Amino acid sequence: MADNKKVKRIKELVEYLNKAARAYYQESREIISNLEYDRLYDELEGLEKETGVVMSNSPTVNVGYEILSSLPKVNHETPMLSLDKTKSVEALSSFLKDKEGVLSWKLDGLTVVLTYDDGVLKQAVTRGNGEEGELITNNARTFKNLPVTIPYKEQLILRGEAVIKYSDFEKINKTIDEADSKYKNPRNLCSGSVRQLNNKITAERNVNFFAFTLVMAGEDENYLGTVEKQFDFLESQGFQVVEHKKVVSDSGVPYDNTVRVSEAVKYFSHSIEGFDIPSDGLVLMYNDIEYGKSLGRTAKFPRNGIAFKWKDETAKTILREIEWSPSRTGLINPIAVFEPVELEGTTVSRASVHNISIVEGLELGIGDEIEVYKANMIIPQISQNHTRSGKLQIPDKCPACGGETEIRSINDVKSLYCTNTQCVAKNVKKFTHFVGRDALNIDGLSEETLEKFIDKGFIHTYSDIFHLDRYEEEIVDMPGFGRKSYDNLKAAVDRARTVILPKLIYSLGILNIGLANAKVICREFDDNVEDVISASADRLTQIDGIGEVIADSYVSYFKNEKNMKEFRELLNELKIEKQAQAENNSEISGKTFVITGSLERFANRKELQSFIEDRGGKVTGSVTSKTDYLINNDTQSSSSKNKKAKELGIPVISEEMFMKLAE
């Protein structure tokens, strides 16, 4: 008979791990660290083996969760199973026995299954719950390095990982001023980008695709016989494949470009330090595909491969302080400051704790002995608190303004907020966002300068920025300024008086409203200011890409009397220019275009899309009865889009023909 206490613990672990996985995979947020998840998972697995009790909803027997999205759902041809895992190089080597294997990166993004027919990408589906995924074909066509046509003409099915590189992730985050709106990690950003309803947003995110498995070529599930040959074949078709090495066990003798497992692991562990692509480990597969398949599978894992997760380097240290960092929206972020330690070759002394829920879960207190690590060898995190004093005082006053704070619970996550609407931190960040490049784009108003102007009382509202000439003499005499700096600033402010409506809406800093969302909303209402600001939540959610969360925060902003007063005053200072007003061409305005194939006159599809939208047209990703023109320089090709256009009687035009329309 199983120990009741252990059974109770099993149920607690199942509930908590499922909650953590659901938050991470479906809602793109973290409530515990990866290291803590693995530790609890191993505890659960051990208890299940010891007691013989396995719950039907245990993460050790279930693969993934039901997907929550309005994207169409598609069943996979073959189930997508997880691999068993280890953190031991010895276990990795013994798994291989006397067989040859292929060791490759385990990338940390979103797994996607691609299907090609007659050399053309026909379907792209996310992993989903392993049995059923989401259809994202239009989005996949915007992946930066993905071929949309390939030489192989029979049906081809492959799997790979969609990822956003660290360098692109950092560039995107640099465009976001407020800390709480920044993306937490590339994996979350990629997941949201790939699953967008608007594939224009996906295209802007620089998503890359790396192939790691050939599922089927023609009707052959064992095409070419080995994993290595399949990688070579996929490269010959234009796919970028995960970096890999042919290996033998540590007890074996290397031959024919093979290396021992431990040597290959050592190579990858050194490479990850400067690796631009998110990775959370390695994957080892038997090179002989038929042999791997002959081994069958367990209830959850196939036996032809195993995953190796990095054994994170950890260090014990003492928590000295929690810094509380306010942001434009009022969210106050906790940052742990501890005695410096060496991790993965660098000195680390700070780590984000993210929210109050994690603070409470770790039972933090100043002076506690904590253990820190770098998640995926990159991001500093607290893995454990050995002392667990729980004595940390949550501030009841905002560190920036001294206003009252409150803890709010959103989606079961507790966070600290400043309640003072006039908080200095909120104001400085608010105005910094307002004058940013993608908003009003006013050069010369840095955060430091804005802080000085606010302190001196020059700026209280947005419209005050357009009346800085009232303080001309004082500004000219300020340290770091002068006549030339003032004149340049005045010219920049005057230029900002003419603005398109999406940039104005974005500049207001409405929670969850980025520039892309602002453009979609304004276009839907034909840039009519009154319609745009009075839109209801129900009306907004009818727009592709606008969900309930976005709609609710948008409507709440304009329902606020103070916000509306400030916005009305701002309108008196500005000239709103319609997006398509500059060059409104009757042959393009109001028409819907689809772009396919390579381009000659335009650098890329995004540039052509902008050209069309600036003239009042619209660009979509697929040919439908609502399409007016398909732009394809190969007008006679037998591509699926050309065929569809001809079936529907839609003109297929080249760039040259398009430019004649635009004249």
Our estimate of the beta-strand percent is 15-25%
Spans of at least 5 consecutive residues with low confidence: 63-69
Estimate percent helicity: 25-40%
CATH architecture of the largest domain: 2-Layer Sandwich
What is the fold-level CATH name, i.e. the topology of the largest domain?
A: D-amino Acid Aminotransferase, Chain A, domain 1
Largest sheet: 7 strands, antiparallel
Name of the level-1 CATH class of the largest domain: Alpha Beta
The N- and C-terminal alpha carbons lie at a distance of: 83 Å
Class derived from helix and strand content: alpha+beta
Can you say what the CATH homologous superfamily of the largest domain is?
Answer: DNA ligase/mRNA capping enzyme
Number of helices: 24
- Give a count of the beta strands, DSSP E runs of length 2 or more: 25
Question: For the residues shown, what is the average pLDDT?
Answer: 85
Count the domains: 5
Shape: globular
The whole-angstrom Rg is 28 Å
Characteristics:
OB fold (Dihydrolipoamide Acetyltransferase, E2P), D-amino Acid Aminotransferase, Chain A, domain 1, seven-stranded antiparallel β-sheet, 663 residues, single chain, alpha+beta, six-stranded mixed β-sheet, globular, Helix Hairpins
